[in-house]
Amino acid sequence: MVKIEGIDKLLAEHPFFKDMPIDARKTLAGCAKNERIEPGDYLAQEGNAADKFYLIRSGALAVECHVPSGDNLVIETLHTGEVFGWSWMVPPYEWNFDIRAVDLTRVISLDAACLRKKITKDKLLGFELYSRFIPILAKRLHSTRQQLTDLYGKS
Amino acid sequence: MTSKTAVKRSPKTADDAQPDTRPDAPRDAPLDAMMPVPFRIVKRTQELADTFTIELTPASGRGGAFAFRPGQFNMLYAFGVGEVPISISGDPANPKKLIHTIRNVGAVTQAISNMKVGDEIGVRGPFGSAWPVEKAEGSDVLIITGGIGLAPLRPAIDHVLANRGKYGRFVILYGARSPADVLFMEQLTAWRGRLDTYVDVTVDHATRDWAGNVGVVTRLIERANFDAYHAKAFICGPELMMRFTIKELSSRGLKDEDIYVSMERNMKCAIGHCGHCQFGGKFVCKDGPVFPYSSVNALLKVRGL
């Protein structure tokens, strides 16, 4: 049984929820769950249903792309205070990459079906959520574009 | 080092790097600054697939100190091939060891790469401005670099660590293409092991056996703990990396005058005469290579310059 009060406190501590109206946060807390991932365990795998998104409370996650050689390619790491997973917002709601815990990682997961149901009913709640995702998406896109420039190459 | 060579030093800091455009402005370099002095390679270390370090001693056999300031460079002459500007990567407190770390990118660096211990190489220098390590005393110091850019900053890191009590928080952020491209891995590990230094390293891509960060170096800035209003940042790397880094630092509150960059242009004479490295109204060899960002920010926005 999820204790909403405890989860809401954890949500309030996470940067993603900074300045979110308390009512909206408490509503979202009903979709949230505290989770612990052991080092090396996978939280998501390419092609599987993207049924959650995650707030990292501590630890580190690696975003990986599996390659034929069997040795996955790590393309990004995410750390304490960051958010991962937006495939739940975009059809067909499938993960595009694998996600592995690098260290012992503590996260809060938010259930996608629960979220979609709530934001369909409450457009303002959807706005609160999406307006927090957009800057993260923009930042990740910007970082990815920097990576594409071969930033440390021969100048 | 012979006393003749020692007078060639140009011990400026980047803060003195405002160009004096008066026709009668004093010149930094003496007339013999164009004369290479023969040195002998006493040690060669292959750092990465395309990067190596050489340690030099005067070929005359008369040892001595090659005094330099962190950030300065020498012109290295591969006899019969050509000259190339290379930053000094050794410890300024140990000037008997003249050390350069070089990436093999062209004909001259290829010729130097082919040299062996005992071979001779011409040296002119040291030239140029330095990282303002004295001015940074009392402040937090951020070293942000990528690829081969760590080499010109290593003397500044050595200086700060040797005088650790004079500085606030000390942050070193380094990015490379892959784990196999991380320069000075052993030293980075040793610096990271210190309790008074924050070191974070990232690569663009890796396999699972890499337990460190993956992502661009600018993303390390948000996790580093420093006081943006009492910090000096020293940045060295490709210009694109420096631009992105400056943008991130500015968004965190660092003022332009607290950010220093090491510029790279086509340096030939190294004394501001030939004009090859002209950068707006400045010469990178003479007025730089280390500049306060506040003095070059407008120039960095000029396309094609």
Architecture overview:
The complex is a heterodimer of chains A (155) and B (305). Chain A contains 4 helices and 8 strands; from the N terminus they run ααββββββββαα. By secondary structure, chain A is an alpha+beta fold. Chain A has a single domain (4-148), classed as Jelly Rolls, CATH 2.60.120. Chain B has 2 domains: 3-130, Elongation Factor Tu (Ef-tu), domain 3; 140-300, Rossmann fold (3-Layer(aba) Sandwich), CATH 3.40.50. Chain B has 8 helices and 18 strands. Chain B is globular, with a radius of gyration of 19 Å. Classes of the chains: A alpha+beta (155), B alpha/beta (305). At the A-B interface, strand 4, strand 5 and helix 4 of A face strand 12, strand 13 and helix 6 of B. Strand 5 of chain A pairs antiparallel with strand 12 of chain B.
Class of secondary structure makeup of chain B? alpha/beta
Question: Taking strands numbered 1, 2, ... along the chain, how are they ordered across the largest sheet of chain B?
Answer: 13-11-10-9-14-15-18
Number of strands of chain A: 8
- The total number of structural domains of chain A is 1
